[in-house]
């Protein structure tokens, strides 16, 4: 497949610093510690996004992006450029910046990993549940567009539906579910695709879920089970504080790096090995590559193949 300009969204990791230690986070394994983007580099990202991509959505992530002291200044700049802005946060500092987020029309996604304090705190590695919930309540009170997200894993699998009902009671009207994307640090907590598919089906058809929109964020091979999401790697990208560019928020591995905004041309980024892997899918077995549904599911998540949670014998042509 020929490379084309990025068109889905840009995720900018403005800092690798975090005040939690989540069991599933790729930052625990793949990212350099305590690195944060400078204003000079942030402006380079904005210029590149305007000049060389078709992206309309601009996402601030981390680490924990609210720990960057220039976050609101960055948001103000991106807002004036006309991007649709989104902030991915653990919610621990949401109360402090909620008014600014409202002013600049930033949509906020807050991680809520369980419907009760002890399990949420265990998953995120910090006693933060209460401040997260208070932050959500305050942001909703002043009119911030707040959604929540749960990363499904072995610890909270049996409480996913309960978590949806819990956040709905807080006043949340949009909740997303993603599965734990495997990396070397979190394999013991990862779920297999059959389990994930069964839970996605339960969520879709659960009769008590009304008044809240549920989105499933990660792809599943269509021949294995329920799937309504295609992997966005290859039509979106993640940019690190040092301006390294990767095809996906979860694949900051050196061999998948597309390049660096300060060192490589836009054409070089789009023709890089890291970019082409997600366009051409060479990691998939032949039976997947022949499948009529390949364009719909792209064989599922690359990391499931990379860390051997998925094998050719697990997939069958329909």
Describe the structure.
The structure is a single chain. The protein is built from twelve helices and ten strands. The radius of gyration is 19 Å and the shape is globular. With 318 residues, it is of the alpha/beta class. The chain has helices at residues 39-52, 71-80, 94-103, 117-124, 129-141, 160-170, 193-205, 266-270, 273-280, 286-289, 294-297, 302-306; strands spanning 9-15, 57-62, 84-89, 107-111, 146-152, 174-179, 213-216, 237-239, 244-246, 259-260. Strand 6 (174-179), helix 7 and strand 7 form a beta-alpha-beta unit.
Instruction: State the total count of DSSP E strands.
Output: 10
The overall pLDDT, averaged over residues, is: 88
Helix content: 25-40%
Helix run count: 12
Q: What is the ordering of alpha helices and beta strands?
A: EHEHEHEHHEHEHEEEEHHHHH
The structure class reads alpha/beta
Strand share of the residues?
15-25%
Q: What is the rounded distance between the termini? A: 23 Å
């Amino acid at each position: 497949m020929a490379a084309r300009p990025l068109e889905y969204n840009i995720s900018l990791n403005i800092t690798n610093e975090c005040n939690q230690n989540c069991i599933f986070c790729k930052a625990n394994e793949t990212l350099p510690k305590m690195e944060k983007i400078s204003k000079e580099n942030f402006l380079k990202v904005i210029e590149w996004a305007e000049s060389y991509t078709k992206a309309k959505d601009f996402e601030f992530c981390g680490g924990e992006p609210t720990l960057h002291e220039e976050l609101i200044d960055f948001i103000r700049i991106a807002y004036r450029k006309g991007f649709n802005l989104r902030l991915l946060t653990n919610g621990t500092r949401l109360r402090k910046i909620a008014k600014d987020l409202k002013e600049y029309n930033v949509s906020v996604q807050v991680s809520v990993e369980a419907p009760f304090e002890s399990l949420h705190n265990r998953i995120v590695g910090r006693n933060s549940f209460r401040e997260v919930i208070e932050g959500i309540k305050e942001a909703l009170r002043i009119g911030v567009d707040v959604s929540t997200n749960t990363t499904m894993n072995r610890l909270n699998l049996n409480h996913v539906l309960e978590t949806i009902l819990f956040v709905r009671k807080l006043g949340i009207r949009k909740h997303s579910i993603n599965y734990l994307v495997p990396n070397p640090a979190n394999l013991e907590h990862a779920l297999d695709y059959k389990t994930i598919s069964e839970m996605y089906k339960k969520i879709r058809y659960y009769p008590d879920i009304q008044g809240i929109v549920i989105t499933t964020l990660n792809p599943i091979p269509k021949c294995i089970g329920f799937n309504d999401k295609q992997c966005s790697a290859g039509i979106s990208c993640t940019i690190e504080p040092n301006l390294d560019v990767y095809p996906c928020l979860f694949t900051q591995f050196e061999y998948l790096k597309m390049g660096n905004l300060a060192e490589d041309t836009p054409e070089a980024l789009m023709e890089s090995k890291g970019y082409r892997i997600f366009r051409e899918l060479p990691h998939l077995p032949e039976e997947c590559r022949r499948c009529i549904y390949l364009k719909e599911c792209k064989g599922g998540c690359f990391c499931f193949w990379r860390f051997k949670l998925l094998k050719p014998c697990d997939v069958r042509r329909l």
